[in-house]
Design brief:
The protein has three helices and eight strands. It is of the alpha/beta class.
Length: 158
């Protein structure tokens, strides 16, 4: 009976540990490495230190990201042809910054307008099985701390 009580009391702890990690079956999440750290899309919203939102209205945006059709024209390029999601993710450490995509952005959170039109803070090219253009835009804006200043992008080591 005592063993059953110990087992029963440890189940909630195991569940909390799994949720803190982002789930038991979560594969590699879209991420980018920046120097000694990485920026990764969070598996759960409460895991994220930074949240970004998206809008279809350019007037509501705080950051504009343009999808371009050539890698040479992009500030940030994601190209992969990896068959598995386990083959090359970013290492997770204490320095990893997790980004969540909010459906309803809160005040102060970056709001991204993603389009294929010009006049953008960042340009991205995405040809990936694992990254969507929204993932790439969220990562680049999150890596820059939510700022839409294209001139600072050149200083980042991507």
């Amino acid at each position: 009976m005592v063993r059953f009580k110990i087992l029963a009391s440890s189940i909630p702890l195991v569940l909390v540990a799994l949720l803190a990690r982002g789930g038991s079956g979560s594969g590699a999440r879209p991420c980018i490495a920046i120097g000694e750290t990485s920026v990764q899309i969070a598996a759960t919203p409460w895991q994220a230190q930074w949240h970004v939102g998206f809008t279809d209205d350019p007037a509501e945006a705080t950051v504009r990201v343009q999808i371009v059709d050539r890698a040479e024209a992009a500030d940030f390029t994601v190209v992969d042809d990896i068959d598995t999601t386990d083959a090359g993710g970013c290492a997770i450490s204490a320095a990893t910054r997790f980004i969540a995509i909010s459906t309803v952005p809160a005040a102060g959170e970056p709001v991204i307008y993603l389009s294929d039109q010009g006049d953008a803070d960042y340009t991205i090219f995405v040809s990936s099985r694992h990254f969507t253009p929204r993932d790439a835009a969220a990562l680049i804006v999150g890596a820059r701390g939510g700022h839409g200043d294209r001139h600072h992008m050149a200083a980042a080591a991507f």
